[in-house]
């Protein structure tokens, strides 16, 4: 990524919660103006990266993440499915590429990676996606240093591992692992030379300070995570968070804008939760500094707006998909 030399003072790693909260509380126009100013210093403001997700191993996950339809702890309508075949995954990646995606993200409902034939197959998937000329991203749960290195050797571009929320609120949402487990995997990814994709979820009952606390921890990483997905909770029946009230789209835009200001050179991904939003609300999120979306009609297990919707939306707002590099 080309970071203009003279702007390194924008890239701070000591953002405090009160500072971030003060940004969040600005009049919306003022907040958006600041976010847009930084956005165009580091990115082309009319380009949006298209990423496509595929669940390569679905459901029956031993973790108890309260938001997740794939946890074995909750009765949801997700059907468990073992690891997909490499050819099928590469088929899907090729189709995503034909639809304009430049990054292909493979998600597995695992607590952690185990060495063996399944991990070897994932490494083949990574090599295959790279051979298609796309960025390859995986989200497979916790990793050891050695596993992160093997993913790096296979050519993995990015590893997604979300912090989800603040350290203080984390225990309300997940009891089967700790925040430190999460941070340890992020360190393994960074040390292996794979870029980091890490963000979180709005709408789980967290406070504003929890949202800002998560951004403060993310921004404390040096370098910043190269990509920061901001999800709004997809409320899935059967999960403990099924009845949470929906996230106000203006709150979503504010969160994206603060993420953009705190980590100006990063890709800020407007991730889960677009399906419930109007085109105007989505446009506002782009104006706030989002420059990446998940495309295709499915996220991992839940619906996403789909290609026709996204083509119409980007057309209306005059944005274009980012071209593939290489
Ligand atoms: N099992 C791995 C893990 O947890 O890291 C990888 C897959 S997991 C489904 C990836 C991410 O999806 C989670 O960290 C969470 O942030 C997000 N996610 C899961 N369910 C969600 C939901 N209902 N709404 C929004 N985001 C969700
Ligand atoms: C991320 O932050 N959001 C994506 C991706 N990283 C892996 C996952 C969203 C999952 C939404 C619920 C589902 O479809 O199962
Ligand atoms: Fe498992 Fe990941 Fe879902 Fe948590 S978020 S239950 S670890 S698939």
Briefly summarize what is shown.
With 326 residues, this protein is an alpha/beta fold.
What does this protein structure show overall?
With 326 residues, the protein is α/β, with parallel strands linked by helices. The chain has one domain (12-318): TIM Barrel, CATH 3.20.20. It is 39% helix and 14% strand. It is built from eleven helices and ten strands. It has helices at residues 17-24, 28-42, 86-98, 117-131, 145-153, 167-173, 179-192, 208-220, 249-262, 279-287, 307-317; strands spanning 47-57, 103-108, 135-139, 158-160, 195-197, 200-202, 227-232, 267-270, 292-295, 320-321. Strands 1, 2, 3, 4, 5, 6, 7, 8, 9 and 10 form a ten-stranded parallel sheet that branches. β8 (267-270), α10 (279-287) and β9 (292-295) form a beta-alpha-beta unit. α1 (17-24) packs across α8 (208-220). It starts with 16 loop residues before the first helix and ends in a 5-residue tail after the last strand. The model is unreliable at 1-6 (pLDDT under 50).
How would you summarize the topology of this molecule?
Elements: H1 17-24, H2 28-42, E1 47-57, H3 86-98, E2 103-108, H4 117-131, E3 135-139, H5 145-153, E4 158-160, H6 167-173, H7 179-192, E5 195-197, E6 200-202, H8 208-220, E7 227-232, H9 249-262, E8 267-270, H10 279-287, E9 292-295, H11 307-317, E10 320-321
Helix pairs in contact: 1-8, 2-9, 3-4, 5-7, 8-9, 9-10
Bound molecules: S-adenosylmethionine (SAM), 6-(5-methyl-2-OXO-imidazolidin-4-yl)-hexanoic acid and iron/sulfur cluster (SF4).
């Amino acid at each position: 990524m080309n970071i203009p030399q003279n702007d390194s003072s924008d890239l701070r790693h000591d953002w405090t919660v009160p500072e971030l909260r003060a940004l969040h509380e600005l009049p919306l126009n003022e907040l958006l103006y600041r976010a847009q100013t930084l956005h165009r210093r580091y990115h082309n403001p009319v380009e949006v990266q298209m990423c496509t997700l595929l669940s390569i191993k679905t459901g029956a996950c031993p973790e108890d993440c309260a938001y997740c339809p794939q946890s074995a702890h909750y009765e949801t309508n997700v059907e468990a499915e073992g690891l997909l075949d490499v050819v099928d995954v590469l088929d899907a990646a090729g189709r995503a590429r034909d639809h304009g995606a430049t990054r292909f993200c493979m998600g597995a409902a695992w607590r952690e990676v185990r060495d063996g034939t399944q991990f070897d197959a994932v490494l083949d998937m990574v090599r295959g996606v790279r051979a298609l000329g796309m960025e390859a991203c995986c989200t497979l749960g916790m990793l050891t240093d050695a596993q992160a290195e093997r993913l790096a050797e296979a050519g993995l571009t990015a590893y997604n591992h979300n912090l989800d929320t603040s350290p203080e609120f984390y225990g309300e949402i997940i009891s089967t692992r700790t925040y430190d487990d999460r941070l340890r995997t992020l360190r393994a990814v960074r040390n292996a030379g794979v870029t980091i994709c890490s963000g979180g979820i709005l709408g789980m009952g967290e406070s504003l300070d929890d949202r800002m606390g998560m951004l403060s921890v993310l921004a404390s990483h040096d370098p910043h995570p190269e990509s920061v997905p901001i999800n709004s909770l997809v409320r899935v029946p059967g999960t403990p968070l099924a009845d949470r009230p929906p996230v106000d789209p203006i709150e979503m835009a504010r969160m994206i804008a603060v993420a953009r200001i705190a980590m100006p050179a990063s890709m800020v991904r407007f991730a889960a939760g677009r399906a419930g939003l109007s085109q105007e609300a989505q446009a506002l999120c782009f104006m706030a500094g989002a420059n990446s979306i998940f495309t295709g009609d499915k996220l991992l297990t839940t619906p996403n707006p789909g290609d026709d919707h996204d083509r119409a939306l980007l057309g209306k707002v005059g944005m274009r998909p980012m071209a593939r590099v290489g």
